């Protein structure tokens, strides 16, 4: 009885992950994912495979076996290959031989999965750890540890580089959001690898389905500029949140003048807000009024006129 309750409790994270993934399938632009954002699709397929295997195991649909554990590792390889390729795409460092680099990452994942599934050299068996089952490492298990650590380290490197190097302002913001939101989980995965390397018997199947699904959710949400901006507003110390607070404070100060009997002019208020937005757009565009105009979807002359109005007001 207790074992059955424990299995149900352990199945909840995987079930929750599968539910979120099903929702994402129903609400995402599938054609766009297939044609333009295939790394997210690759990441999604890997996460879906891991979550299904974990839920099937804990729910008693399929018992733990050597093959299912090997298959879980293969899906894990697909997952982190997808996020690495996506990190390369938004970092701006893969522009020279992008296609070849993507193929190389995919081929490494295929080679690793083939070696994992066709031999017992990396995982030679399974053993019970009470609440679950874990792998018995083979002679070549160090390949798994090195490969996983390399994928995570390269992903962190690409995202960090993307916050500084890439010229596309949207990609720079997206790299920043992904770095802030996914790095804690990537470091947790590195810590789990370290624990396994020193002989600690752990099973990360309770943590990984929710963690990777959260990462997938962030990846899909940040595909849209509006959603990306909404996320940036929620990140402490971000430029967007700081500017938002400044504008909010400006509105509050302006409206508070009514307490002193002064008449509020909506035209003056919106003009002040426009000047604040234009100044921020020029700053984000490194002083280029042309880029700022493109960012705000207005003409360069409009930006120039607003800048002059700001200088006069100062």
Question: What layout of secondary structure does this protein have?
Answer:
Blueprint lengths: L1 H26 L2 H6 L2 H21 L7 H26 L6 H21 L4 E6 L4 E5 L3 H22 L6 H29 L10 H14 L3 H10 L4 H18 L9 H19 L4 H8 L3 H14 L1
Antiparallel strand pairs: 1-2
Helix pairs in contact: 1-3, 1-8, 3-4, 3-8, 4-5, 4-6, 6-7, 7-8, 7-9, 9-10, 10-11, 11-12, 11-13, 12-13
Describe the protein's architecture and organization.
This protein has 314 residues and is mainly alpha-helical. It folds into 2 domains: 2-233, Rhopdopsin 7-helix transmembrane proteins; 236-313, Arc Repressor Mutant, subunit A, CATH 1.10.10. The chain contains 13 helices and 2 strands; from the N terminus they run αααααββαααααααα. It has a two-stranded antiparallel sheet. Strand 1 and strand 2 form a beta hairpin. Helix 4 runs parallel beside helix 6 and helix 11 packs across helix 12 (289-296). The longest helix is centred in the middle third of the chain and has 29 residues, at 169-197. The N and C termini lie far apart (74 Å). 29% of the residues are buried. The mean pLDDT is 76.
Brief descriptors of the model:
single chain, 314 residues, mainly alpha, 2 domains, two-stranded antiparallel ribbon
The tally of domains stands at: 2
Strand tally? 2
Mean pLDDT: 76
> Which architecture of the largest domain per CATH?
Up-down Bundle
Largest sheet: 2 strands, antiparallel
**Coarse structural class:** mainly alpha
Low-pLDDT runs of 5+ residues are none
How does the overall form come out from the CA principal axes? Answer: elongated
Strand arrangement within the widest β-sheet reads: 1-2
CATH topology name of the largest domain, in short, is Rhopdopsin 7-helix transmembrane proteins
Radius of gyration: 25 Å
Strand content: under 5%
Task: Give helix % range.
Answer: over 70%
Distance between the termini: 74 Å
The number of helical segments is: 13
- What is the CATH level 1 assignment of the largest domain? Mainly Alpha
Element-by-element helix/strand order? HHHHHEEHHHHHHHH
């Amino acid at each position: 009885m207790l074992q059955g309750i424990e299995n149900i409790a352990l199945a909840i994270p995987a079930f929750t992950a599968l539910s979120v993934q099903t929702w994402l399938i129903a609400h995402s632009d599938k054609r766009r994912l297939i044609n333009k954002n295939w790394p997210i699709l690759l990441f999604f397929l890997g996460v879906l495979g891991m979550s299904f295997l974990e839920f099937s195991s804990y729910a008693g649909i399929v018992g733990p076996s050597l093959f299912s554990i090997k298959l879980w590792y293969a899906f894990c390889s697909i997952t982190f290959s997808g996020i690495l390729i996506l990190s390369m795409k938004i970092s701006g460092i893969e522009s020279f031989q992008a296609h070849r680099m993507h193929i190389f990452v995919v081929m490494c994942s295929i080679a690793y999965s083939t070696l994992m599934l066709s031999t017992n050299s990396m995982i030679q068996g399974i053993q019970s750890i009470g609440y679950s089952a874990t792998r018995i490492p083979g002679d070549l298990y160090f390949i798994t540890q090195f490969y996983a650590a390399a994928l995570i380290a390269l992903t962190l490197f690409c995202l960090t580089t993307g916050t500084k190097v890439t010229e596309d302002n949207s990609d720079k913001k997206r790299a920043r959001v992904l770095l802030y939101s996914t790095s804690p989980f990537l470091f947790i995965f590195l810590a789990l690898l370290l624990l396994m390397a020193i002989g600690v018997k752990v099973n990360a199947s309770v943590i990984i389905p929710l963690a990777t699904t959260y990462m997938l959710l962030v990846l899909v949400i940040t595909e849209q500029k509006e959603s990306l901006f909404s996320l940036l507003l929620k990140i402490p110390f971000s430029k967007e949140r700081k500017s938002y607070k400044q504008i909010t404070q400006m509105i509050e100060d302006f409206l508070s003048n009514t307490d002193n009997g002064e008449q509020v002019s909506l035209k003056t208020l919106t003009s002040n807000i426009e000047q604040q937005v234009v100044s921020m757009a020029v700053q984000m565009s490194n002083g280029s009024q042309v880029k700022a105009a493109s960012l705000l979807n207005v003409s360069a002359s409009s930006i120039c006129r607003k800048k002059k109005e700001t200088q006069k007001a100062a």
